[in-house]
Amino acid sequence: MKRPGGTDEQKRRAGESAARVVSDGDVAGLGTGSTAAAAIRALGRRVDAGLDVRGIPTSYQSRSLAREVGIPLTTLDDALPDIAIDGADQVAGLGRDDSADLIKGGGAAHAREKLVAAAADRFVVVADPTKLADALDAPVPIEVLSDAVPAVEAALSALGGEPTLRAAERKDGPVVTDNGNLVVDCAFGAIDDPAALSADVGTLPGVVEHGLFVGLADEVHVGVADGVDVYPRES
Ligand SMILES: O=C[C@H](O)[C@H](O)[C@H](O)COP(=O)(O)O
């Protein structure tokens, strides 16, 4: 899916930078979206050059692309990822001591993405400069069981959010995730305490997973005009 963001060149640089930190013999989580796709293509080129790696895809999209570029696949049943590489819709908190906070799920893949990122020893985020923010303020994608949508929307409103069921673009009705559920995008304005909101939303009955990624990112590789900025910066 084409979403607003940086240039293909910025995404390629970020993706190549992240693919370079994959080591021979690694199991690598393969994220979803256009920036993660750049990393998967770069990893495929390393496989062509002899790298031994197995990928764990986070979506139909990443599985198809990994197969296309020749990355052997495995599953969480058989292996845990040494590393996971994935994009983000918004990144806040770069440069501070603890982990950057993310909003993910613009492609409705955040449930499997969080599962794989949390299972990985090292979670590397790939982004372009349009994703960087001082504070998270984008709507938070929330995957919800279809029967639970009215109750979850009411609970999100009580938390101060403005929920909207995500509509499909080339299908009548809502977006249906790879897991067969629906997505509610909930605007909260600027999120002062992402960890507290993550806990509040995550405990609502009927919520499968939400797109706040707090305390998970180990590194962020940002493709810029003339290279890549890697956070945390080496001192
Ligand atoms: O559900 C999709 C994912 O969380 C993506 O990683 C996220 O939306 C960023 O995608 P893109 O790199 O295409 O902006």
UniProtKB/TrEMBL annotation:
<feature type="binding site">
    <location>
        <begin position="32"/>
        <end position="35"/>
    </location>
    <ligand>
        <name>substrate</name>
    </ligand>
</feature>
<dbReference type="InterPro" id="IPR037171">
    <property type="entry name" value="NagB/RpiA_transferase-like"/>
</dbReference>
<comment type="pathway">
    <text>Carbohydrate degradation; pentose phosphate pathway; D-ribose 5-phosphate from D-ribulose 5-phosphate (non-oxidative stage): step 1/1.</text>
</comment>
<dbReference type="InterPro" id="IPR020672">
    <property type="entry name" value="Ribose5P_isomerase_typA_subgr"/>
</dbReference>
<dbReference type="GO" id="GO:0009052">
    <property type="term" value="P:pentose-phosphate shunt, non-oxidative branch"/>
</dbReference>
<feature type="region of interest" description="Disordered">
    <location>
        <begin position="1"/>
        <end position="20"/>
    </location>
</feature>
<dbReference type="GO" id="GO:0006014">
    <property type="term" value="P:D-ribose metabolic process"/>
</dbReference>
<comment type="subunit">
    <text>Homodimer.</text>
</comment>
<feature type="binding site">
    <location>
        <begin position="104"/>
        <end position="107"/>
    </location>
    <ligand>
        <name>substrate</name>
    </ligand>
</feature>
<keyword id="KW-0413">Isomerase</keyword>
<comment type="similarity">
    <text>Belongs to the ribose 5-phosphate isomerase family.</text>
</comment>
<feature type="binding site">
    <location>
        <position position="131"/>
    </location>
    <ligand>
        <name>substrate</name>
    </ligand>
</feature>
<dbReference type="GO" id="GO:0004751">
    <property type="term" value="F:ribose-5-phosphate isomerase activity"/>
</dbReference>
<protein>
    <recommendedName>
        <fullName>Ribose-5-phosphate isomerase A</fullName>
        <ecNumber>5.3.1.6</ecNumber>
    </recommendedName>
</protein>
<comment type="function">
    <text>Catalyzes the reversible conversion of ribose-5-phosphate to ribulose 5-phosphate.</text>
</comment>
<dbReference type="Pfam" id="PF06026">
    <property type="entry name" value="Rib_5-P_isom_A"/>
</dbReference>
<dbReference type="GO" id="GO:0005829">
    <property type="term" value="C:cytosol"/>
</dbReference>
<feature type="active site" description="Proton acceptor">
    <location>
        <position position="113"/>
    </location>
</feature>
<feature type="compositionally biased region" description="Basic and acidic residues">
    <location>
        <begin position="1"/>
        <end position="15"/>
    </location>
</feature>
<dbReference type="InterPro" id="IPR004788">
    <property type="entry name" value="Ribose5P_isomerase_type_A"/>
</dbReference>
<feature type="binding site">
    <location>
        <begin position="86"/>
        <end position="89"/>
    </location>
    <ligand>
        <name>substrate</name>
    </ligand>
</feature>
